[in-house]
Amino acid sequence: MTQTHQHEVIIVGAGGAGLMAALYASRGADTAVLSKLYPTRSHTGAAQGGIGAALGNLEPDKVEWHSFDTVKGSDYLGDQDAIDYMCAQAPEVVYELEHMGLPFSRNADGTIAQRRFGGHTNNDTKQPVLRSCYAADRTGHMILQTLYQNCIKNKVHFYDEFHVLDLLMNDGVANGVVAVELATGELHVFHAKSVVFATGGHGRIWELTSNAYAYTGDGVAITLRRGLPAQDLEFFQFHPTGILKLGILITEGVRGEGGVLINGKGERFMERYAPTVKDLASRDVVSRSIYLEIRDGNGIKGDRYVHLDMRPEVVNHYAELDGRKMPDGTPYRVTGEQLLSKVPDIVDFCRTYLGIDPIKEPMPIQPTAHYAMGGIPTNMHGQALSDAKGTIVPGLFAAGEVACVSVHGANRLGTNSLLDLVVFGKEAGKMAAEYAKGADYKPLENNPTDFTRQQLDRILGKSGGEKIVTLGEEMKTKMMDDVGVFRTAEGMTSAIEKMRELRERYKNISVDDHGKRFNTDLLNAWELGCLLDVALATAVSAEARPESRGAHAREDFPKRNDTEWLKHTLAWMDGNQVRLEYKPVTITKYEPKERVY
Amino acid sequence: MLVYLKIYRYNPEAGRNVPSFDTYNIEAEPTDRVLDLLEHVKGNVDGTISFRRSCAHGVCGSDAMRINGRNMLACKALVKDVGTEITVEPILGLPVLKDMIVDMEPFFNSYKSLMPFLINEDVPADGKERRQTPEQLERFEDTTKCILCAACTTSCPVFWSDEQYVGPATIVNAHRFIFDSRDQAANTRLEILADHGGAFRCRTAFNCTEACPREIHVTQAIAEVKNAITSGGVEH
Ligand SMILES: Cc1cc2nc3c(=O)[nH]c(=O)nc-3n(C[C@H](O)[C@H](O)[C@H](O)COP(=O)(O)OP(=O)(O)OC[C@H]3O[C@@H](n4cnc5c(N)ncnc54)[C@H](O)[C@@H]3O)c2cc1C
Ligand code: SF4
Ligand code: FES
How far, in Å, CA of A155 to CA of B229, rounded? Predict the structure, then answer.
């Protein structure tokens, strides 16, 4: 039996973006949050290094510098009005989190501690600036916990372990979602006036990834299937420092605290690629540099990895060469103990998974798939958009990694995602409640669960067909090889063909579990369908862009081409076909310039 | 190396209403996580095996299980550390719903009963952060690391036998606020914990501390709460 529920605002996803939206929406409207994971299991909890805000607690910093760094980091593809808004809001939302109880690390004077991060600079001296507000190396964990705690305080209504499979629309207006309750396998219809998607990213498309199993692109896939576009999917960030073979993230905060990248010849190679900020260049730049070192045979022992070194003697050696100073002007020096207290989880990961102590030995690392700059197109208020003209989809909102505002353009700066979640989660929540107050419930279709049932029945109706792991592994390997850090027309064309083939084979997928209760087998299969859709749309969007910009680096078109390609991609999907359109980038103050670090 | 893996199975819906074990011999690397082995079996041999997981590196709290009789996160237990004969079972003391999946509601309800949120409506006039020194933070920082995995609570013999007991995780999360210099409701929390289901149920078995994948000093946190109750409050 399908149950039907009614709430004015339905929020899908209980990570940083979803919970922030929930806190604000629930102030003005009857709100419920649906999440396939228990809220505290959301991937926001994995974020380590910090949230960016120009508080200037220990040295001068300015909102304008944060804005410019973000624009430059985005390789000029970010929309400057939205970036200005986000950076200007940053100090206020960080204080708001503190007021909610977030246990930030502190400076001796009791203010919020800040560290250096890639691409964040003092625009006058061009040197890295202390901008990332952190709670040791578990900033995301503390944001997630704090927001969840405040949701409990404010009695926000949760449907935990409800997996959303479809978005309901009536005449172009969003009016609800369909979800399966994991514990019972029953479908539930949620009738709403506003729907907010905050479902996170899709890094599970790639073989080596920092992303959770749950990062399967559900939000983007669901909206694509409902005829809505996805924006800028070709821009997917590879983080330079994933643990060798596992992809588990080592925060950029390690380099912020003075860690350096070292190749097989013992060289600090980032000096050659980014002479001014070196190891703290933007992530796209650093990941490419690592690939180039490896290609030139400069990996450790000639192998496909390099070292991230944060042994105190190494940190101190390079800090001295760089002339790095403490905020009080004394030379920058660290002890092993201090490093341990700043990045305890990193030390724990290295001990657990590598069996090494990073205070005593360097860490073997390689770039790892990390963050989706692209996603559901929205404006600065979290309202979803349906075309290149910026037409709003009434009743539909998106925020967090699933959304593309776009504040990250072609490459996100570290610490700007957590900021994005809080700023635009809040905005989407407020707007969703406001919209709900002025709207009626749009009637549901007669059989709102039809499309969902069709998708599930197709999987359940087969036996002995294709396996989830087989298709999944073929997808991940292909995408890693051909739609990864470096790309060519040939590689991407073959990836497109491969994704089409896998989507065909997916029609014949089958699962072992035909039960109702916690049928994770069935949901894994459904999630793979989402990944394949997003992978195909990604490959097509990428192949169509003959330039290199931010995370999209083409060997056959190594230069950025502002004359023709300073524009956002919008992708629509129809069966195995992907249709592309483009829309202009909003440029206010910062004219595109060459990007050097 | 060859691993002998024994997996607990229970699923009344599919006629498996008496718990039993399925066994597998699988090829594994010493550095494989137990979660990798479970994923391997689920993906290649039997898709009906059910367990929760997400982050795969010990930070989301989804996959606390009993591995060779001890509570651990499957994603943080490596073959080289647990040996080549591995038995995987659900955590104890919460109703098993299917295989390794237990009903987490009682656990979260207990957590929520201790007001797990900062209570302090005063904000500085300039709208900026409340000041807190590194030393004040250190007082409660350890307990902020909790990921609500339930490994501690479900390893506690008192929790198994006593329905009233709130369990270690709830006290850990109360500790996080009681000792936070910014919080104004320490006494209310202490009163609740002084009550019959509270901190004094703890018999310092230390199982919780051993089980905690975040290496939180759980027993110590409970002891600090007991002391605060006995001494009538907390000085910041
Ligand atoms: C290891 C790591 C470290 C990072 N460190 C930093 C950092 O230091 N600073 C920074 O700024 N950024 C960092 N990031 C990026 C940042 O953490 C993420 O982009 C961000 O947390 C995403 O938040 P979100 O709210 O959009 O999604 P999430 O927190 O992932 O939440 C998604 C939610 O949606 C739910 N959901 C998904 N699909 C469905 C569905 N179909 N039905 C129902 N519910 C669904 C999930 O259950 C979950 O609750 C890091 C990322 C990783 C992986
Ligand atoms: S205290 Fe440790 S074991 Fe207990 S719930 Fe928290 S993280 Fe898990
Ligand atoms: S899967 Fe997240 S803690 Fe193990």
Answer: 28
